[in-house]
């Protein structure tokens, strides 16, 4: 199941409020019906701003090897897929709790325009993606100076 995680480099407070409300309602109905919430992502992530143009996305992918992950960018949409190569059958194991994700996953982030992926690296179960956000000069806000032209007779 693909999880879409929209975020903007210019966040809007109301988007976050509605998103959180949807998640809360989704969890409430899931508790009542016993089904899994549709908005829950197995992969947790952090997004931090390094400076005005650079960001770092870190996604938790415990147990995945480099060759089991793909990262792609198309039309401003970042797609991260994990597909386990070796799925071990553990028939004689009695699990008390199994909270570490084991299956295939797809996570999608809608990044918008003007995004470039600098690099992706995997270390200690964390996939780190360096993102550059470069707004073209013609789309940047331009300040216009105001001149005082007192008209006196």
TrEMBL record:
The keyword rRNA processing does not apply. CDD domains: ACD_IbpA-B_like. The keyword Cell inner membrane does not apply. Keywords: Stress response. InterPro entries: A-crystallin/Hsp20_dom (IPR002068), ACD_IbpA/B (IPR037913), HSP20-like_chaperone (IPR008978). Residues 36-149 form the SHSP domain. It comes from the Bacteria. Belongs to the small heat shock protein (HSP20) family. PANTHER family: PTHR47062, SMALL HEAT SHOCK PROTEIN IBPA. This is Small heat shock protein IbpA. It comes from Candidatus Providencia siddallii.
């Amino acid at each position: 199941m693909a999880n879409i995680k929209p975020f903007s480099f210019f966040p809007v407070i109301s988007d976050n409020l509605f998103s959180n409300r949807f998640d809360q309602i989704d969890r409430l109905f899931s508790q009542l019906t016993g089904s899994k919430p549709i908005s829950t992502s197995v992969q947790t992530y952090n997004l931090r701003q390094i400076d005005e143009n650079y960001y770092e996305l870190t996604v938790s992918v415990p147990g995945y090897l480099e060759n089991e992950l793909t990262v792609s960018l198309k039309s401003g949409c970042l797609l991260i897929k994990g597909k386990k190569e070796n799925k071990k059958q553990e028939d004689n194991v009695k699990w008390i709790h199994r909270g570490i994700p084991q299956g295939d996953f797809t996570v999608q982030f809608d990044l918008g325009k003007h995004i470039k992926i600098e690099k992706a690296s995997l270390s200690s179960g964390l996939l780190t993606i360096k993102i550059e956000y470069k707004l073209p000069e013609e789309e940047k806000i331009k300040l216009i100076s105001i001149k005082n032209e007192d008209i006196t007779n």
